[in-house]
Amino acid sequence: MAGQDIPQEYLDGYAHILAAASSTGRRLTRDELASRRVLGERAADAGLGLRALVGAHLAATRAHWPAERALCVDSALAAAEQAMDAFAEGYERAQRLAVRQEEAARREFIDDLLYGRSDLGLLAERAERFGLRLSYEHAVAVAEGPNGYEEGHAVPREVERALIGRFGDRSILLTTKDGRLVCIAPGDQGEVLAFFAKRAHAATDGGRVAIGRPQPGPGGVVQSYEEALNALDLAERLELDDPVLHAADLLVYPVLTRDRQAMADLVLNTLGPLERARGGAQPLIDTLAAYFDSGCVAAEAARRLALSVRALTYRLERIHKLTGANPSDPVHRYTLQTAVIGARLLDWPSKRF
Predict the structure, then answer these.
(1) Number of neighbouring beta carbons within 10 Å of residue 135
(2) Do residues 48 and 5 make contact, with C-beta atoms less than 8 angstroms apart?
(3) CB neighbour burial string for 211-249, b if at least 16 within 10 angstroms, e if fewer
(4) Bridge-partner residues for 182, per DSSP?
(5) Which DSSP string corresponds to 93-120?
(6) How many CB atoms lie within 10 A of CB 49?
(7) Which segments within the chain are labelled E, that is strand?
(8) Of 106, 261, 271, 329, whose Cβ has the fewest other Cβ atoms within 10 Å?
(9) Each residue of 234-280: pLDDT tens digit?
(10) Contact assessment for residue 323 and residue 271, using Cβ atoms and an 8 Å cutoff
(11) Which of 150, 193, 197, 144 is nearest to 172 (CA)?
(12) What average pLDDT does the segment 316-328 reach?
């Protein structure tokens, strides 16, 4: 603040430096410059405002202006300029160090929070410093785009400005992790994560966003974060087109893969015969996926695959002949669709098992 009282200790030696330099016309010595930088660092550490400090130096300059003004004005001004420049340099250096230390502490906290590798009680105490109360429910949204993003990148800054402008201080933490944007918000404020998803999707040039379920307690953040990551992984494996995914809507997939061996057996027993087809199993699996994703409407599935309806119908008949399961039969359809989902999740037939 401009009216802030500045203790004289931060002006220690300034009057002597000004008098000595202005009377001889010399520049400040290395030690004199160093002393100004040290005082600047101390002033920054004490939380004093730079504007008030500059004002105090100007006031001291007027108070100790040399008597022989006509002869010494240039030397006095040069000395004052050098002294204040060195003081400001030290002040700014201390501020940069403080910022780096704060960033390091924040990054360490975020790593511990998202990996769940710290004592939960201590983690909850540290969280209050960053505006989170971990005793409440929290949900996590994760956005990924074509590029990786780090703290300070233009994309997270843009999204953060939009969040703050819309919601102000609502115990929201926006950060980056492994090149993705991460937003942590109270579990009862779904509108915050919905807005984050919208802005992150736009800022990342059409990137995908996944939102974990609200989870309680200090360990709830890491649970919701992992759910969001798993949703992104599922979306890639299943080639889902939705720009925003909710982990709550995808719970069936972890259930399907909980018994990996059973799913592998279903895939091999149901779809294994397709490997005898010319071109292998993959084109026919893609045909089934498009057919099911289009609601079993042949014309729409053909359009998605850039095929004629006649060619699509031929492929479906070929699948029926090889597997013994008819894709248009409701009884067979469930088995085939579950097997196709399993093949996507297990990356079969690219990976053998």
Answers:
(1) 12
(2) no
(3) bbbbbeebebbbbbbbbbbbbbebbeebebeebbbbbee
(4) 142, 175
(5) HHHHHHHHHHHHHHHHHHHHHHHT-S-H
(6) 16
(7) 138-144, 173-177, 180-186, 208-211, 244-246
(8) 261
(9) 888 888 888 999 999 888 887 787 888 999 999 999 999 999 998 89
(10) yes
(11) 193
(12) 94
Structure tokens at 328: 């248009």
On whether the CB atoms of residues 329 and 291 are closer than 8 A, the answer is: no
Residues 171 and 139 sit within 8 Å (Cβ to Cβ): no
pTM: 0.64
Q: How far is Cα 254 from Cα 26, in angstroms, rounded to an integer? A: 77
**Which structural domains are found in the chain, ordered by start?**
8-99 (no CATH), 134-250 (3.30.70.270), 255-346 (1.10.10.2840)
**Tens digits of residue pLDDT in 278-310:** 889 999 999 999 999 999 999 999 999 999 999
* Structural tokens at position 28: 């400040």
- Report DSSP state, residue 327: T
Looking only at the bridges linking them, the beta strands covering 208-211 and 138-144 are antiparallel
pLDDT score of 246: 95
**Taking residues 47-53, what's their average pLDDT?**
82
Q: CA of 54: how far to CAs of 27, 83, 84, in Å?
A: 20, 11, 7
Per the structure block, which two tokens stand in for 310? 């006649």
Alpha-carbon gap, residue 270 to 259, rounded angstroms = 17
pLDDT tens-digit series, residues 338-350: 999 999 989 999 8
Integer Cα distance of 220 and 244 in angstroms: 21
Give the span between the Cα atoms of 277 and 275, in whole angstroms: 5
DSSP assignment of 233-289 equals HHHHHHT---SEEEGGGGTHHHHHHSSHHHHHHHHHHHHGGGGGSTT-SHHHHHHHH
What is the residue type of 107?
R
Phi-psi region of 209 (alpha: psi -120 to 50; beta: other; left: phi over 0): beta
pLDDT in tens, 328-337: 888 899 999 9
Give 313: exposed, middle or buried? Use CB within 10 Å, 0-12, 13-18, 19+: middle
